[in-house]
Amino acid sequence: MPASSLDTIVSLCKRRGFVFPSSSVYGGLGSTWDYGPLGVELKNNVKRAWWRSVVHERDDMEGLDAAILMNRLVWKYSGHEATFSDPMTDCRACKTRPRADHLFAAQKGRDPKGLAEINVAIEAKEIACPKCGSKDLTPARPFNLMFKTSVGAVDSGDDSGLVYLRPETAQGIYVNFGNVLDTMRRKLPFGIAQVGKAFRNEITPGNFTFRTREFEQMEIEYFVRPGEDEAAHEAWIAERKNWYLKLGMNSDNLRVREQEKHELAHYAKRCVDLEYRFPMGWSELEGIANRTDYDLKAHSRSAENPDAVGELKYFDQEQKKHLVPYVIEPSAGADRATLAFLCDAYEDALVKEPPAEETSKLRELVESFARSVGRRDNMAADVKQRLVSTAETIATGLPGTLPQLIGLMEDSEAANIEVMKKVRGVGEKIAEEHTRTVLHLHPRLAPLTVAVFPLKRNDARLVEMARGLKRELQKAGLRTVYDDTGAIGKLYRRQDEIGTPWCVTVDFQSLEDQSVTLRDRDSMQQERLKAGELPGALTSRLT
Ligand code: GAP
Fold this sequence. Notes:
By secondary structure, the chain is an alpha+beta fold. Helices cover about 40% and strands about 20% of the residues. It has 19 helices and 22 strands. Helix 2 packs across helix 11. About 35% of the residues are buried.
């Protein structure tokens, strides 16, 4: 069973060292997260796989790593100072400040067509505060999302040192267009790729790492002759969709969505979103926009831009004239992609049937839980209905529904029901013995590639051979760990839960013939291989 809620993923991430709440020793900082030892490996692997696919495996791409702090004029002429904002309203009753377009969409069932339409709805008292229900809302007004800071040792009190933390990496690419073109002697079409941090003072961050104020983007600006832009756009949509699929993402969870006219950013002629079916619903993973010649022209000297030092253009040798390229921009989020791969890989699975008497005891408790929830009158009707029908389905289907029971035992709404304590008392033990949580991550994305165990940790020969094998695998460039802190079955479960594709066990036969068992995470099948063949065999399975 895949993750039924984001809470399941958040809990796994905290428990197993993928992602921690930031600054937790001081109570945290809302919606900011730190990637732990396994999370940093996973996210680095996502970024590496992206770079390899869009830079190393193509002939028409270059890489870049531009500064986060840029001249303020970049953001003036890109249009961000004037337009990079979200509409906000204040509730006069409870002083909440919600995002007005989200309120409109949630309460009227469709996206607004602009600020004016939102304000007509506020004026007509058609939308209400999500916290207290009051319809006494102020007119919505734009709130700029760029974080400000200042450069220089002296705070002069005016705006002379003002700079922004970049809200997208794209502008760093545009302003380097001429540098890359000149130094790399590129001909159209060609693109520039960049991975890096971006910052947005989001009004409503949330859903774990899905929307945060500090995040990483993986962006491409692909420059083409005007007129060749539409075909290039189609090609990039297919290319980028395939990238997720090649890395194992389930095609049922990935879709292409055409943005409607009113959703388009000020610079875009067309934009297509790749959306992933996250536990909270279909949401944007990556945007692929046709930005036309908007940005290169915006940063070129002209009557509208007297501050630029020159023009960002291209000399077309064939036509013997200058032109301003059009730009196709596949813009992905490294954090969102990482979260999507995690959600997609997650599975709770039954591995063996528990004894009948344990199952029937658990069934009685789950039925009792369903009855107890059904009797409650201080619970929201939708939550009550969901918990009752989930519990009834689980009770009927046990032991096959043990994986779903794990989801129910982690459900924060279910935790308040007294009988849940008894369900957990019995259910957790049965689940631990008879189910496994596994991350079916693509081997190239998995934080660890191989785990090596000695069958017995108190046998020095086994330990020595296992440690030596670990060093050999490490030398071959495979991310490897050694573990001897539990029985082999327990060690397998631990590695399954973090997505390690292969486990190697050194046993007594290994001492005689130098063979070891290689266990596959997904099939749980074991094969015997010569220890010396392992680095080559695993390296070839990784590509
Ligand atoms: N240069 C174009 C651009 O920035 P965007 O749709 O605003 O377009 C591109 O952002 C991608 O960056 C999104 O598809 C998403 O994956 C990621 N992203 C944007 N805002 C984010 C946020 N607040 N938190 C995490 N990721 C975000």
